[in-house]
Amino acid sequence: MTMTGTPQPRSHAQPPRVVTASASGLDRDRILVFGDAVLAAEDSLHDAALRTANALGARTGRGADVTAVPWSSWTGMTLLSAGVGMHLDNYDVVVVCLSGSVVHSRTTNTAVVGAARQALVLVDQLRPHLAPTAEIVVALAHKGDQTGLVTALQQARHDLVVLDTAPDATAPALFLEVTHLLLEQQRARAGSPQWLRSKPQPFEHRYDAIRRLGIVDAPADSALDRIVQQMAVLFETEGAAITLLPAGRQWSAASLWLPRGTAALQDSFCRSTVLRSGPMVVGDAWDPDRPPVVRRGPIRFYGGHPLEDLDGTRIGAVCVFDSAPRREDTVETDLLRDFAIVTRDTLYRH
């Protein structure tokens, strides 16, 4: 089941130079694109990223998150400066689209080698910040014959995938096919980014992301309230909430049934949800045969999905809950993921 009727996003928080768009699905891949040569030029950056995420999701049968940093945000800068504050180790594939002074027609071998070196300086600055098995794709976005530069880059770094994405080339289809193959190969490797994302993230990453968001202790927001109300209606529960987990407490930005605001961590199901990349469902928290998640309280059924920052840092959860237990296999966890996406897009203006 897919969410419709996304509320208008909020106007505060993340600078507009970074956007993330998502295709539905629980076991998703994460792609980071510096530049827009492999995205649909006729769309806005967010719409182009969404189109790419949907196309990748259709190929893989999984969800996809595509984060895009436009040309204007890093032209003349290092990629690390353009992505300041982002946790690059959350990404499976990182695409660097090269244009401008780095990529243009080269008439001598010396010029080709020089261009390759310039490109590799940018790429080599990224590598230590990525997961060990993350893939880097270099896309050469310039009209003209780039054969020499492609060859020079491939010979210099055997761990790179180099694509010629000149305007007259079939760049989107080729990019999607190559990315799909890289993702499938990567999932078979130990220590892949997908595997790493399933583990608890450093607490400080979460705390920093929440501080940057600036929503904790803010007044109620009507857009978030509407999301919570829609969650309760679709899941047919007494309660629903959007929660964040800053240091030492749980804070609900919007809530039904339970009060909005601060709650003790001992009563927080979301404290456990934020530790994993996928949903958490507790059919009956009072069941004596299962390990307790929280102190015994009014909630018996709980279903939650992590709420993420634009780079995949888990900052809290969206959740539904009820005083009556229910079967865990009846809970639409993909719908919980859709609500997490809607909430992220509401918090982070694109």
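[next item in queue]
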Amino acid sequence: MTRADAVAALRNPLSFIAGRWTPEPRTVQRSALSALVMSVVIVVTGGAVRLTGSGLGCPTWPKCTANSLAPTGAMNFHSAIEFGNRMLTYVLCAAIGWAIVAARSEKPYRRSLTRLGWAQFWLVMSNAVLGGVVVLVGLNPYTVAAHFLLASALIAVAVVMWQRTREGDGAPRPLVGKPVQQMVWFLVLATVLLIAAGTVVTGAGPHAGDSSKVERIPVDWETVAKLHAVLAWIVVTLTFALWFVLKAVEAPKDPLARTRELFLVLLAQGVIGYVQYFTHLPEILVGLHMFGSCLIWIWALRVLLALRERPEAVVDLPGPSTEVTVGTRA
């Protein structure tokens, strides 16, 4: 590497890498998938922090204690769990960074992919700050709910980026009629309400996140849990009805497959939800339920994204060869 190369790498490392590396489309897809997987992992491990009562294992932020960045030998396993979850944020950032680098290096360059990668990065940074606020305010349930909802927004962007890596850059073409599209948007909205109601159940329920006195949302958690169950049945019914509608209009196989998969995920989540309710919320089942909520959100978005296709973009150029295709997928 010459001195000029070193200067160029320092000035714009992404352009420097992109000029010397062209990843395969499958590599870009895998990088986006790794960011999505880590987005789910950070949610599940965050749930483990709460369910083990380790939310204030590190009583301050950004350090673990007033005098130490990491837990000290005198601290207990709650500190290790909380600090471990904080460290996983760096792993998540690494996965997103890989996705950004791969998207920036793909040929031809697709600005939309890079923007989705950076959107994930800034969501992680925002949620890291919000996570610090959660600790500083003693696990206030409203901030905890906002922390989870922001993580759900991160998952949504990661799903879109993963989908876009497997598509071209042409204008989206709908695969179903407008009434079906509206039905799916209603399904997605019902899913958002379901997830939001779940955060209220969490904020009012017995798993406060720490053994000390922690503020709870002043509602009866069992009543909210029943409302949450009603919303779940609405989502299940909409999904079941959507599958019949898609069959009736002879929709392509992808929307049908994604809808069928969502229905199966909902059934599994429903079983876990009812078992945990009648067994007084054992921690392991609550953790599985959190994982299931991530899967429901992912598959609801996959159903929505399956309703259209994006072909390869075609650019008209002067000269003997008048068309150049970009955004080719493997």
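[queue empty]
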